Amino acid sequence: MPNLAAVFDPVTGAKYNPLMDARRLTPQELSTFETLLRIISHLRSPQGCPWDREQTHQSLKRNLLEESHEVLEAIDQDDSQRLAEELGDILVQVAFHTQIAQEAGRFQAADMLTRVNQKLIRRHPHVFGDASSVKDANEVEQRWEELKRKERPGGSLLGSLPRELPALAYAQLMQDRAAKAKFDWEDAAGVLDKVAEEVRELKEAPDTAARARELGDLLFSIVNAARWMGVHAEDALRQADVRFRQRFEAMEKLCKERGLDFVKLPLDRKEALWQVAKRGESA
After folding, report:
1. Comparing C-alpha atoms, which of 231, 211, 123, 212 is closest to residue 171?
2. I want to staple 231 with a disulfide (CB 3.0 to 4.6 A). Which of 79, 150, 226, 227 is the partner?
3. Is residue 128 domain-resident?
4. Do 217 and 253 have their domain in common?
5. Total of domains in the chain
């Protein structure tokens, strides 16, 4: 069976010559999504790249996850140039999965774009339709969830959540959905009391299995507290990771400058270095 990437245009579906001279692409051609689709199509053709031809939806999952985290890192660093580059890498993943699907006869780029554009229009009736205006972003979110439920009747409110999300993000999304169904605490005080209760239960856990269960409950309650405070738990932890790494590497650097062996330092001197590293963040 011939490779469809070698004989069909990924945009129009028409037959075309898969040979292309990328060196002759104009700046205007290089600025379009259609050119990206054609480059990926060529890379997967018999005239293209062996590695690209071997990729599947499954093999590319790790790449998509890594690229997504690099986008988040660029946002955290407020680096516009890197953000533009990393978002481009996300588009490469979109083009790759679209090309693989087209080769299998499942859908084309036009199908993907049509569906997402229709969804955006359908779920913003207050902008593109006759629905009444909304007062704030919270009302927009409530209407969005109502429209989603109507599109997928009979299913659980939690059914559409992707199970491969990081655990903190998954917990917060579940809690968001449950709260929209009026299954929530009455105020933040009840949430914080629950966190304290879970801490006590963790201290009283009799064995490793019980400690693991209680620790999970504590983490879940902390995520709920973050939600009530308007904080994204996954993002908060990621930024805490960054701060710890920066401070730890600063401690190692100070030791190297002073001719000290960091590992052999007593804990009180390491704590002193930690405080120096913290002060250096605001210097």
Report:
1. 231
2. 226
3. no
4. no
5. 3
Domain termination residue (choose one: 231, 250, 271): 231
Structural domain boundaries enclosing 216 = 156-231
Hunting for tokens 């000290």 — which residue is that? 260
CA 9/CA 18 separation, integer angstroms: 8
What parts of the chain have a pLDDT lower than 70?
Answer: 1-21, 152-155, 282-283
Q: What is the pLDDT of residue 4?
A: 41
Q: What is the pLDDT of residue 5?
A: 44
Per-residue pLDDT, 139: 79
Note the pLDDT of residue 20. Answer: 59
Per the listing, tokens 């960054």 go with 242
Spatial distance between the Cα atoms of 64 and 87, rounded to a whole number of angstroms: 11
pLDDT at 3: 43
CA distance 13 to 36: 15
143 Cβ contact list (under 8 Å, min separation 6): 123, 125, 126, 131, 134
Q: Has residue 132 been placed in a domain? A: no
Residue 162: its pLDDT value, please?
83
Residue-level pLDDT at 23: 75
- At residue 6, the pLDDT reads 43
Residue 7 has, within 13 A of its CA and on its CB side, a CA count of 4
